């Protein structure tokens, strides 16, 4: 099956794999060579390089691992008939669909699998045995600059966007780092400094992106961010050890007159769930507003899912409310069900509707606004909202993540230690007897 044939069925998502007639001999046709690869996406005239490893030691379960600095993301490779492969991006409803060519190269596309999605596919090609990202070893250009440190970034699209912070580390010509904003982080970036220019890229499943910039004579930086199929955005930056973002605990809050959160939404089986259900009475409840399309949401889930599993007997519950790329419960059952299975989620998952901040704000009218996916709301044993955190910063952010986890555990320990209200203890003593 060639790439033009794959296009016609790729958008069918899960149905594609379940209905496709696989070749009886999975070894038929060519397979990618095992080892390191270098790929390139092409967006207009912009090229976004990425690196991956292909491991087919287990012939029946080959794995493609995307590499970004120290980050590793594994994806199952499905071998189709002939020379074609299909790599589903785990919980993201997108895939790499490609052919292994006669010369051993891989050519293909990164495509959305969301039914009805009309966005452009991103073509890519990859070569085996190349372990560099932007510049081959020995071809680096000398530079007098060192970008290591913290940077204030002003980002512009059609209008100025919320400010960002970049934390960069340069060793020789090698450059790594992360960009943080009020909604989360970029995940780990990897690149190079060449003379008075620099470039960083990232691809770990969601849309690939590249940061291309120039180092000016005064030490400031200017450049452009190209992100997948979306528009380019410009940025300006200045090194600033005191660079800071707004307090994420103060960006989203309850409207005047509200002390509680109220919603009734379906779970993945269509059963309506509300915070008034007995299951949540007298408990500390964590409400996580997410989307499977959102990388910061999946990073947050990798933190919350094991934390909940370790603490659920202490009188704490959690609810994830997913806003997905289609306003369809059957589709959400597939995407959010995939998330549940991937991360071993043991708390309830509800469907909020289409992935839109305005829609999320309407479904949760007590909030001043829905500013970011994810947003975390912590409710005490009396049912009062005690804390709201906008966005999520993962492990790559270093001290920011460490402080987040430290505060999280301190705050949750304090709320869990609070007494169960007498009215809840009397009416629902069985469900909260292990709360301390």
UniProtKB/TrEMBL annotation:
Q: Which InterPro entries does the UniProt entry name for this protein?
A: AhpC/TSA (IPR000866), Thioredoxin-like_sf (IPR036249), Thioredoxin_domain (IPR013766), Thioredoxin_ResA/DsbE_sf (IPR050553)
Q: Which domain of life is it from?
A: Bacteria
- Signal sequence coordinates: 1-23
Q: Which GO terms describe its molecular function?
A: antioxidant activity; oxidoreductase activity
Q: Among its keywords, does the record have Mitochondrion?
A: no
Kindly provide the name given to this protein in its UniProt entry: TlpA family protein disulfide reductase
> Any keyword Electron transport?
no
What region holds the Thioredoxin domain?
A: 254-410
Write down the species.
Dyadobacter luteus
Name the keywords, alphabetized.
Answer: Signal
């Amino acid at each position: 099956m060639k790439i033009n044939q794959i296009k016609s069925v790729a958008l069918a998502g899960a149905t594609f794999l379940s209905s496709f007639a696989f070749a009886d001999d999975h070894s038929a046709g060519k397979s990618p060579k095992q080892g390191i690869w270098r790929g390139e996406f092409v967006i207009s005239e912009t090229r976004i390089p990425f690196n991956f490893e292909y491991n087919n030691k287990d012939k029946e379960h080959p794995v493609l691992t995307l590499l970004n600095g120290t980050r590793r993301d594994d994806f199952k490779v499905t071998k189709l008939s002939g020379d074609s492969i299909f790599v589903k991006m785990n919980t993201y409803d997108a895939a790499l669909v490609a052919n292994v060519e006669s010369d051993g190269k891989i050519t293909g596309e990164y495509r959305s699998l969301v039914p009805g999605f009309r966005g452009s596919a991103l073509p890519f090609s990859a070569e085996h045995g190349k372990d560099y990202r932007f510049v081959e070893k020995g071809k680096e250009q000398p530079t007098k600059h060192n970008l290591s440190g913290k940077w204030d970034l002003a980002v512009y699209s059609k209008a100025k966007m919320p400010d960002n912070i970049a934390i960069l580390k340069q060793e020789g010509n090698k450059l790594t780092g992360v960009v943080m904003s009020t909604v989360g982080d970029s995940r780990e970036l990897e690149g190079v400094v060449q003379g008075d220019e620099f470039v960083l890229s990232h691809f770990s499943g969601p849309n690939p992106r590249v940061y291309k910039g120039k180092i000016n004579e005064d030490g400031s930086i200017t450049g452009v961010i190209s992100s997948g199929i979306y528009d380019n955005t410009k940025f300006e930056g200045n090194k600033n050890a005191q660079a800071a973002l707004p307090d994420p605990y103060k960006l989203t809050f309850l409207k005047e007159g509200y002390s509680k959160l109220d919603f009734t939404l379906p779970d993945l089986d269509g059963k309506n769930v509300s915070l008034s259900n007995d299951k949540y009475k007298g408990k500390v409840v964590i409400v996580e507003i997410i989307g499977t399309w959102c990388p910061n949401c999946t990073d947050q889930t990798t933190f919350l899912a094991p934390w909940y599993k370790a603490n659920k007997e202490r009188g704490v519950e959690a609810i994830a409310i997913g806003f997905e790329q289609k306003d369809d419960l059957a589709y959400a059952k597939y995407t959010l069900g995939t998330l549940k299975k991937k991360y071993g989620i043991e708390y309830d998952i509800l469907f909020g509707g289409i992935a839109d901040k305005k829609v999320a704000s309407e479904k949760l009218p007590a909030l001043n606004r829905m500013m970011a996916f994810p947003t975390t709301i912590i409710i005490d044993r009396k049912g009062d909202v005690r804390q709201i955190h906008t966005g999520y910063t993962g492990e790559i952010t270093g001290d920011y993540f460490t402080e987040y986890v430290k505060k999280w555990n301190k705050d949750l320990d304090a709320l869990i230690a609070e007494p169960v209200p007498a009215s809840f203890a009397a009416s629902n003593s069985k469900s909260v007897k292990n709360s301390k």
